């Protein structure tokens, strides 16, 4: 008999299939502390949570029989994925079940914002009949900027069309074909920030999206715009938002999520006359809670019964006989994927992976999954992408993956080349494993290099001419950016060339801009590898 612990309030209807299963015993014990969970988790084969229970490394460690943690919802920020993987526990989520509900909440917030509904309600029930203070705006003919056009962002765009809004969207994975189908005009973050009357964010919270809307974006926004966050706290800089409202740039904001939840009693949003808030209710409908609970219960049953399952968000076990042979290539593959994602621009359309040399003999599928994980994580967040779902996520985004193998490898016993085609350009990076030295990048586009793929790198495309290396060094030195190593690759003397610098810490954006402005230098990109 499998024992399943439900440790958060989860729809009864949704978990009925678990309750009905003859080989499962379900215990509902909500509101337990970490210590209480540690004391009992050893008895359970599966755990079902929503967002309240923090499934920590200590809980996982104590869960000696635990095979799976099911999250009835999308975000798994409350589950220690690293610890789950280390303990061989599969973590699954229910990514689709609350999409429509959260999209509808976004509209509820946007319309409440446009028409001051919460403020007007408060005044009316307090006995004041005030019609003057609540002059609203229509959605019709307004430009809606959608940042993040995945499941929820795309549904928001579809519904915004029905309101007669013009939609300007940005998502690194949105191709023009998909955008056209949705009736969305694609623009950059800057286009959206400058032109939108309403902005709504639907990205995950990643190092790249944290504060993607901050002071410098508010400074150039259309006066009187309105902004909505029903995704994750932290995507919009809360302090900068309050200042932008107080300066009259932003007319109002609607937030379902906070950088810290629940927010402190003195949080500047609470009680602010132009900010409306809900307590992370995006997914809180009867339907969504049933959907996510049904989805997650079904997959938990499959896992317990050793049947094929979906929606795993961490790494599945790899057969022991393949593990030791492939393991070093996983790291190489993930780094190559991450490198090429950061080096290139535009929506990804096609990836070609070439395995040459001894790699032609083995099943390279897991390596391709790591390459895709490195590539997609840059935009989707490492929390969402793993080797189980990386190929599926690529397919969902219409990214074509081509794998080629050759027994011949000219200069190396093994070589992995990842080429990427976007709407804007084609780039490639090749890497190898050097015995005793680990992963190396040996070619970038057509230029041979020898780069250890780790830490903070700056990738520069420039013209091969005297003095340029010195000028780059001087500019970085003047800005206190210390160069640890430098590699230069060129094909012909005086032709185009690249430089890869390893620096000791992150390079400020202004310094990258100054580099790009230098004569003879074409692009300068920061690439951060684990
Ligand atoms: N408020 C709630 O209760 C609630 C409910 C469900 C989901 N969510 C949150 O909503 C967000 C979206 O969920 P989803 O299911 O649509 O996820 P999704 O993975 O389908 O979509 C996210 C999209 O963001 C894009 N993206 C990543 N980085 C970007 C960047 N820098 N700029 C622009 N786009 C970027 C990705 O390419 C992806 O298409 C997530 O943060 C999720 O946790 C909140
Ligand atoms: O209400 C919840 O469980 C959180 C919903 C949402 O943030 C999610 O990530 O699915």
Automatic annotation (TrEMBL):
Pathway annotation: Amino-acid biosynthesis; L-serine biosynthesis; L-serine from 3-phospho-D-glycerate: step 1/3
Reaction(s) catalysed (UniProt annotation): (R)-2-hydroxyglutarate + NAD(+) = 2-oxoglutarate + NADH + H(+); (2R)-3-phosphoglycerate + NAD(+) = 3-phosphooxypyruvate + NADH + H(+)
Pfam families: 2-Hacid_dh (PF00389), 2-Hacid_dh_C (PF02826), ACT (PF01842), PGDH_inter (PF19304)
Superkingdom classification of source: Bacteria
Coiled-coil annotated residue ranges, if any: none
Domain spans labelled ACT: 457-530
GO molecular function, one term: phosphoglycerate dehydrogenase activity
Keywords linked to the UniProt accession: Amino-acid biosynthesis, NAD, Oxidoreductase, Serine biosynthesis
Protein family: Belongs to the D-isomer specific 2-hydroxyacid dehydrogenase family.
Full protein name: D-3-phosphoglycerate dehydrogenase
Species of the source: Paenibacillus chungangensis
Gene coding for it: serA
């Amino acid at each position: 008999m499998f024992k399943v612990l439900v440790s958060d309030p989860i729809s009864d209807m949704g978990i009925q299939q678990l309750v009905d299963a003859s080989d499962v015993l379900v215990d509902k014990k909500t509101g337990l502390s970490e210590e209480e969970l540690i004391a009992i988790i050893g008895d359970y084969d599966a755990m079902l949570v929503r967002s309240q229970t923090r499934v920590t490394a200590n809980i996982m460690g104590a869960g000696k029989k635990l095979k799976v943690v099911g999250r009835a919802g999308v975000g798994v920020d409350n589950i220690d994925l690293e610890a789950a993987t280390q303990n061989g526990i599969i973590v699954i989520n229910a990514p689709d079940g609350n999409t429509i509900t959260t999209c509808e909440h976004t509209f509820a917030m946007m319309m409440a914002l446009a028409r001051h509904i919460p403020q007007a309600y408060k005044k009316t029930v307090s006995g004041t009949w005030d019609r003057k203070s609540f002059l609203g705006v229509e959605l019709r003919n307004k430009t809606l900027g959608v940042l993040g056009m995945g499941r929820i962002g795309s549904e928001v765009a579809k519904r915004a069309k029905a309101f007669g809004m013009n939609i300007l969207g940005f998502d690194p994975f949105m191709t023009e074909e998909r955008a056209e189908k949705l009736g969305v005009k694609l623009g950059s973050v800057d286009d959206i920030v400058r032109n939108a009357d309403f902005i709504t964010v639907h990205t995950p919270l990643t190092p790249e999206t944290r504060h993607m809307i901050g002071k410098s974006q508010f400074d150039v926004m259309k006066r009187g715009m309105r902004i909505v966050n029903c995704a994750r706290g932290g995507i919009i800089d809360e302090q900068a938002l309050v200042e932008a409202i107080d300066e009259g740039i932003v007319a109002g904001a609607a937030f379902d999520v906070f950088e810290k939840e629940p927010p402190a009693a003195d949080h500047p949003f609470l009680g602010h006359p132009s900010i409306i808030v809900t307590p992370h209710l995006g997914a809180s409908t009867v339907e969504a809670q049933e959907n996510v609970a049904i989805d997650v219960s079904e997959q938990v049953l499959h896992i317990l019964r050793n049947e094929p399952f979906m929606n795993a968000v961490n790494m599945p076990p790899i057969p022991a006989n393949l593990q030791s042979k492939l393991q070093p290539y996983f790291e190489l593959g993930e780094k190559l994927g991450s490198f090429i994602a950061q080096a290139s621009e535009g929506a990804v359309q096609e990836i070609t992976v070439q395995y040459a040399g001894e790699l032609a003999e083995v099943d390279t599928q897991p390596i391709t999954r790591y390459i895709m994980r490195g590539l997609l994580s840059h935009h989707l967040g490492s929390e969402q992408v793993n080797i189980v779902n990386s190929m599926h996520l690529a397919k969902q985004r219409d990214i074509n993956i081509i794998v080629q193998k050759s027994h011949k490898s000219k200069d190396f016993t093994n070589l992995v080349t990842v080429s990427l085609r976007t709407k804007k350009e084609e780039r490639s990076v090749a890497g190898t494993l050097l015995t005793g030295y680990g992963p190396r990048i040996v070619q970038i586009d057509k230029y041979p290099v020898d780069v250890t793929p780790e830490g903070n790198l700056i990738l520069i495309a420039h013209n091969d001419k005297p003095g340029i290396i010195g000028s780059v060094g001087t500019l970085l030195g003047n800005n206190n950016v210390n160069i640890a190593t430098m590699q230069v690759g060129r094909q012909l003397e005086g032709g185009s060339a690249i430089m890869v610098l390893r620096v000791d810490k992150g390079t400020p954006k202004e310094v990258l801009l100054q580099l790009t402005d230098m004569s003879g230098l074409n692009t300068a990109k920061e690439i951060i590898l684990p």
